[in-house]
Specification:
Layout: E1 2-6, H1 9-26, E2 31-34, H2 41-54, E3 62-65, E4 67-69, H3 80-87, E5 99-100, H4 109-122, E6 128-131, E7 153-156, H5 159-165, E8 178-181, H6 184-188, E9 193-197, H7 203-211, E10 229-234
Parallel strand pairs: 1-10, 2-3, 2-6, 3-5, 6-9, 9-10
Antiparallel strand pairs: 4-8, 7-8
The structure holds fructose -6-phosphate (F6R).
Fructose -6-phosphate binds near residues 66 and 132.
Length: about 260
């Protein structure tokens, strides 16, 4: 695991965007695994800037998002499909048919999860997976207790995650109770992982994920089993780490 501690959120976002841009330049048909939530928004803004100002080309890029709420139409402003269109896809030259978000309205959810896994394989697997982390150590919607071998499936959201996410809804009652999410096993199959964390509210989760034991009670700790993980934090999210971590990665190029 490579841990990089940046001064602030802007620097974290710039580094993550540079790493993704390096990959896209060297492999135009890159398959990106993407996340929603507040953490990756700065990275997406920087990728949009690179597209507009430096001509970063997404024409051949394929994406798979980690998760989606069950029951929200894609027109709902809190659906993850809406979020991705609004925060990234509508502002770059990606082909919409190359962007994949789990189908929260699927009639046969189990079949659609199996199909999602099949499509990732058909596209050659995910080259780099961007992740945030929940205050309880979740990645995707893989809450504490999720199997470390899990694949894309429906999960019940914990009370804590529904409370965390209620800030985006009119009331907690409107927060969906279920979500479709890539499993921890799915995430471990990706070629490379970039996990971003900022703010003190993530400090305990980052400490458990990086320096704690591998346990289903902190799903992000499973990343210790992945051979190519870069964790990029700001000073606040790194404040409970005991190790000494650098501000620059060993290498920038993701090949
Ligand atoms: C989002 C996702 C979640 C978030 C996590 C952190 O697609 O999979 O695991 O990354 O809940 O959310 P923020 O970034 O809003 O703190």
């Amino acid at each position: 695991m490579e841990v990089i501690v940046k001064e602030n959120y802007e620097q974290m976002s710039r580094l993550a965007a540079e790493m993704i841009a390096d990959l896209v330049r060297s492999k135009p048909r890159s398959v990106l695994g993407l996340a929603t939530g507040s953490t990756p928004v700065g990275t997406y803004k920087e990728l949009i800037r690179m597209h507009k100002e430096d001509g970063l080309d997404f024409d051949q890029v394929v994406t798979f998002n980690l998760d989606e709420y069950v029951g929200l139409p894609t027109t709902h402003t809190e659906s993850y499909r809406y979020f991705m269109n609004d925060n990234l896809f509508n502002h770059i030259n990606i082909r919409k048919e190359n962007t994949h978000v789990p189908d929260g309205l699927a009639k046969d959810v189990t079949a659609s999860c199996t199909e999602y896994e099949r499509m990732m394989v058909e596209h050659g697997g995910i080259d780099v997976q961007l992740l945030g982390i929940g205050g309880n150590g979740h990645i995707g919607f893989d809450e504490p207790g999720s199997s470390l071998a899990s694949r894309t499936r429906v999960k019940t959201l914990t009370k804590e995650t529904r409370e965390d996410n209620s800030r985006f809804f009119a009331s907690i009652d409107e927060v969906p109770k279920y979500a479709i999410t890539m499993g921890i096993g799915t995430i471990l199959d990706t070629r490379r992982v970039i996990l971003l964390a900022n703010k003190e509210s993530k400090a305990d989760a980052i400490s458990a994920a990086v320096e704690g034991p591998i346990t289903a009670m902190c799903p992000a700790s499973a990343l210790q089993l992945h051979p190519a993980v870069t964790i990029i934090t700001d000073k606040a999210a790194a404040s409970k780490l005991t190790g000494n971590y650098p501000a620059e990665p060993h290498r920038l190029i993701l090949k």
